[in-house]
Predict the structure.
Amino acid sequence: PRYRAIMFGDAPRHGLEAPPQPPRLLEQLERPQLPRDVDEATAELIEGAHDRVQSILDMASALDKPPVREQVERLCHTAEKILAELAREPRQIELARAFLTYYLEAAYRIVERYADLSRRAQRSPEADETLSRAELSLQSIQRSFDQQLAALLQRDVIDLDSEIALLEKTVKMDSLMNGRSGPADEGSRPQAGA
């Protein structure tokens, strides 16, 4: 009964422990739709990056060390956020060129080799040292992903700030052309009797 409960997910009978649950990984995020006017090369680049992130996430499930598995999950979550920003605004793809062409591939290779090396029964001290260095490199990649996401979001902030500044100038110019003063000008007028 225990074997059946584990293999087939049957409800355990009274007195049997529940079957072990697989580690909870980041669920696959829905891929945002690309705008219709995006060129084919950009669409392929973004779709390929989504596939690469999913491959990294799939490999994470084989990692026995929970902190490393969680680090890889965070990495994938940040990568998906970056890809969502690129899908929303494909014109920013040049800002993310290093992420798409280098960092994502480096993360894939490191996780793949880390998973392979960590599964081996016999390891040398050099292998253990390499695994430790790989764990540190995942932290470096996470910092790079965080910086990439911040840069994409900062561009939105700059765009919005520019739009607000343009609106303010337009309103001010319109007020001057129509002979009215705006709210900011009223405080600077000399008061009667002053």
